[in-house]
């Protein structure tokens, strides 16, 4: 635990009603010493952090149960998470923990300028994290990787247009436009915040209000950091999509050359193997099942058809005696995981856990701005640095939660 200078304040004067007027402004009247005030605040923040741990524990339990029950869905859906973006955000938050711990030390030693720089650095890291997360969220929303009921991902058309979402998936025009242009909606509040802070800094400079200008100046850098994170995420996401597109184009080019070289043979082969197209037979036993399997929601019908095909393949040419145990391979049938009822649940858990964590980041930004204003006002000294220490503990917990979220969601396959 951090030590506090035990030099007591100057002698306290009490009036007839028992109120002391010589208390320093940072020492509340219901505390006798700075140590008592610091220890009380430390106990309070630890109790609050325990409730936060219990809150996140429920989501981690839901994650563990889902992964235990349906590991194949987890493995298939987690392939859509961008490990590079997650790793960058992990590094950013780790660095923010360093700057936050440094800020606590600066408040203990009375280094006001360094304290302001460290708090502003922590704020900038938080904004970079949100900027990268904005790119990650908007990219997934445009592809349809959403929670159950709204999931519409199609591997044949991973980036549908607004018109396609309206006509093919039944979304309203406003919802479809939001999904395809979500990055602009997510960035708009931060852009307005940046413009407001810049205007505030200009007005403070013109009116020669040194305190307000000293507060607005680092906040401009903090707001710009968000768009730095957005740019970084766009660069990484764009480079990855470009690499995938190059591989696809190269594959198509090779296939085109092969088809051109064997055009004559292909024509003869097609002519020799051509058969009349199969027509729908209402009397077929599997006709109804095949119709049901055409929908992504009917995963049971699809699994049934796959099981029947596997059984027919394994049992062809064999005679099974009565009572004989035969492994027909049904348990090895791979299920489609890119469906609303399957992958949608995974992404529902993903957005719940990472979204609540992002809300805690926003809350931390709010209290860090409060600390920044007080640090510029020189409210903290060797005897009074409790608020910086308390916020630091909260920030370390938020970072620690992400340290668990990153490997559990992004890395473990």
Describe the structure.
The chain is mostly helical and 413 residues long. It is built from 13 helices and no strands. Helix 4 packs parallel to helix 8 and helix 12 packs antiparallel against helix 13. The longest helix is centred in the middle third of the chain and has 52 residues. The protein is globular. The two termini are 40 Å apart.
* Helicity, as a percent range: over 70%
Do you know the CATH topology of the domain at 34-243 and 336-411?
A: Four Helix Bundle (Hemerythrin (Met), subunit A)
What is the class of the domain at 34-243 and 336-411 in the CATH system? Mainly Alpha
Specify Rg, calculated over alpha carbons.
30 Å
Provide the residue-averaged pLDDT.
80
Largest sheet: none
Gap between N and C termini:
40 Å
CATH architecture of the domain at 34-243 and 336-411: Up-down Bundle
Bin the strand percentage. Answer: under 5%
Count of helical stretches: 13
Indicate the low-confidence ranges by residue numbers: 5-19, 242-284, 329-335
CATH 4th-level superfamily of the domain at 34-243 and 336-411: Cytochrome c oxidase, subunit III, four-helix bundle
Number of strands: 0
Q: Can you tell me the overall shape?
A: globular
Overall structural class, as computed from helix and strand content, comes to mainly alpha
Summarize the helix and strand pattern as letters.
HHHHHHHHHHHHH
GO molecular function, one term: cytochrome-c oxidase activity
Main location: membrane
Region (Disordered): 1-26
Organism: Allorhodopirellula solitaria
């Amino acid at each position: 635990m951090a030590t506090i200078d035990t030099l007591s304040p100057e002698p306290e004067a009490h009036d007839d009603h028992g109120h002391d007027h010589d208390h320093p402004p940072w020492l509340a009247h219901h505390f006798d010493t700075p140590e008592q005030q610091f220890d009380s605040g430390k106990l309070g923040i630890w109790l609050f952090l325990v409730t936060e741990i219990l809150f996140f524990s429920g989501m981690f339990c839901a994650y563990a149960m889902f992964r235990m029950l349906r590991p194949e869905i987890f493995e298939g859906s987690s392939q859509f998470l961008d490990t590079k973006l997650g790793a960058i955000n992990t590094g950013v938050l780790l660095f923010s923990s360093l700057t936050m711990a440094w800020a606590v030390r600066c408040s203990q030693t009375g280094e006001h300028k360094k304290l302001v720089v460290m708090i502003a650095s922590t704020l900038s890291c938080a904004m970079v994290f949100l900027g990268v997360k904005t790119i990650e969220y908007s990219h997934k929303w445009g592809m349809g990787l959403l929670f159950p009921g709204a999931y519409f991902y199609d591997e044949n058309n991973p980036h549908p247009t607004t018109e396609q979402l309206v006509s093919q998936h039944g979304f309203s025009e406003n919802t479809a436009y939001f999904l395809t242009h979500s990055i602009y909606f997510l960035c708009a509040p931060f852009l307005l915040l940046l413009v407001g802070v810049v205007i505030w800094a200009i007005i403070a400079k013109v009116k020669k209000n040194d305190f307000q200008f000293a507060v607005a100046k680092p906040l401009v850098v903090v707001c710009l950091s968000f768009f730095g994170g957005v740019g970084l995420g766009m660069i990484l996401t764009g480079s990855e999509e470009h690499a995938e597109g190059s591989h696809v184009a190269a594959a198509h080019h090779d296939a085109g050359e092969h088809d051109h070289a064997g055009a004559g043979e292909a024509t003869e082969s097609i002519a020799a193997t051509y058969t009349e197209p199969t027509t729908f037979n209402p009397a077929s036993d599997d006709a109804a099942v095949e119709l049901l399997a055409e929908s992504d929601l009917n995963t049971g019908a699809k699994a049934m058809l796959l099981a029947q095909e596997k059984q027919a393949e394994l049992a062809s040419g064999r005679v099974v005696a009565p009572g004989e145990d035969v492994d027909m391979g049904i348990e090895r049938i791979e299920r489609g995981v890119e469906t609303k009822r399957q992958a949608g649940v995974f992404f529902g858990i993903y957005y719940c856990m990472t979204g609540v964590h992002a809300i805690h980041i926003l809350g931390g930004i709010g209290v860090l701005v409060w600390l920044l204003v007080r640090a510029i006002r020189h409210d903290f000294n060797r005897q009074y640095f409790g608020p910086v220490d308390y916020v630091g503990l909260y920030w370390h917990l938020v970072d620690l939660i992400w340290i668990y979220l990153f490997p559990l969601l992004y890395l473990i396959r």
